[in-house]
Each structure stands twice: as structure tokens, then as C-alpha cells.
Amino acid sequence: MGSLYTAVASYLDARAHGGRWLVRIDDVDRPREVAGAAAGILRTLEQFGFEWDGPITHQHDRLDQYEAALCELTSRALTFACTCSRLQLEDESRYPGTCRHRSMPAGIQTSIRLRIEPGNVMFSDRVQGMYRQDVAACVGDIILKRRDQIFAYVLAVVVDDAAEGVTHVVRGADLLDNTPRQILLQRLLGLAEPRYAHVPVLTEADNSKLAKSKRSVRLSAESPLPELLRVFSLLGLPLPPARFSTVSEAWHWSIGQWTVRNVPKCLNLRVTD
Q1: In the chain, where are the structural domains located?
Q2: DSSP 3-state assignment of 16?
Q3: Does residue 3 contact residue 211 with C-beta atoms inside 8 Å?
């Protein structure tokens, strides 16, 4: 339900403004990829009547672009090698700069971090309003490439959005605090900054994030119409004037009704069966 909620919000926002809606498979972390998961996602989108524009893109096809962006930052002395493991940093609230000024011997396995200087990054979110974060104070120097040589999401998504000409991003509020880090990278790389809209994260009755394992809020792709109508309501759309007989009718009506101003202005939205 949570994934459907954010997908519907982004789809309605794109279609209501005459925009293109893109599908990208974020599979840069290949060792954690579940066989058949991408095909299952696309099949579910089709069952709910989503229609995407252009070819489906995959992050694993863009590794050269990520490396080029990393090399640009490194050439400007904006990165450094780090040997710290998660275990070594588990008691730290932020990265303390342990390896910032260290010289690393050749042949040692390291991650690559971006040097983050103090100062607020601010942006106006279309749902949540003005948001600011001092990235240096909150998280410290962020990882761009892990010790296992896998590129971090924060770098990959920034490069991807620029390459695909993304102008608007609609996603869950659980990524709100990640956005200033992306904006910081966009500015360092001279890339355009998309407009962001972070919709509430749907939660269980106990305020924890919706989880399939809990089975408290079921979602059936075999009955897409009632599920869509439920999501429309959670996004602040008015009650439809009549019953719809097809998913296509429901999409047509909801696109005409969409305005981001009606989305609840909260980070979490409780949902029950």
C-alpha cells in the first residue's frame, strides 16, 4: 500500500501537469537484488493501470556515469578515502571525520566520502514546506562509493535524475532528510535541482512503517479499482461523484481532480483495514 501510495501521487502530479512519468529500476546494489523483483514491480504497475513514458532505465547500466561524476569531485579534492566500517561507527551519531586527513596506503579497501562543509541547505518542499539541514552537523561526510565498490544511492540518483531531465520528484517523506544531501551534490556537480514533493509515509496502527510481514494493511493487485480509490482518498482527493466501472475511468477522473495542496501536510499517515 505504501509503495502504491507514492507511485499514485507521482503519477497524478505528472499527468495533471502534462508531464512525463518515468520508471527507473534502482538496482545499483546487485548483490541484494532479488531475482524477479523488477519484473514483479512492472507487472503490478500494469495491473493498476500505470503507463510510463519512454524506455525503462536500470541503474546497473549507468555505472560509467556514476564513476565520471565521482572522478570530477575527486579531481577537485572534494572526496577522500575512508577505511571506517559500520561497526566502528555504530556508536557515532554522525561521521566524525576520522579519515579526513589520513593518507591511505595502496591496496587497502576503502570507501569514498564527500567532504561536507558546515552550512544549511534549504529548499521549499511542495508538500512539507520549507526544510533546512546542516548536512555536516547531521550526518557528516557522506559515502559516495562503498568499500565493496558499489555506488551509493545518493550519488546514483542525482546522476540519474540529471541524465533523464527530471524536473519534479514526488516520493515518500522518509526520504525528506536525504534531499539536502542530493541538492548539495547537484550544486557541486552543476546539475539542475528538481522540485521536490514528499508525501506522508503510510504507517501501521502503532505508527511503524507499513510492512508486508505484518499483514495489517493488505493490497490486492487482482482488485485494483477499490485499492486505487482508497489511495485517492488518502491523498486528499474528493469522493468521486459516481462509481467507476474501469481503472481507466478512475485514473481519468483523479487526474482532473489532482492538486498537491490537498495532500496531508504530515510526515506519517496512519492506515488501518
Answers
A1: 2-74+152-270
A2: helix
A3: no
Q: pTM score, two decimals?
A: 0.92
Give the helix, strand, coil percentages of the chain, each rounded to 5. 40, 15, 45
What backbone torsions phi and psi does residue 107 show, to the nearest 5 degrees? 90, -5
CB-based contacts of 174, cutoff 8 Å, min separation 6: 201, 209
What is the per-residue pLDDT for 156? Answer: 97
98/82 Cα distance (integer angstroms) = 8
Three-point CA angle 226, 17, 48, nearest 5°: 25
What tens digit of pLDDT does each residue of 160-201 get? 999 999 999 999 999 999 999 999 999 999 999 999 999 999
| β-pair partners for 169 | 196
Please tell me the CATH superfamily of domain 2-74+152-270, with its number. Answer: HUPs (3.40.50.620)
pLDDT band at 215 (very low <50, low <70, confident <90, very high): very low
pLDDT above 60 for 213: no
The position carrying cell 557515532 is: 92
C-alpha cell of residue 107: 591496496
Q: Would you state the cell numbers that stand for residue 135, as one nine-digit string? A: 548536512
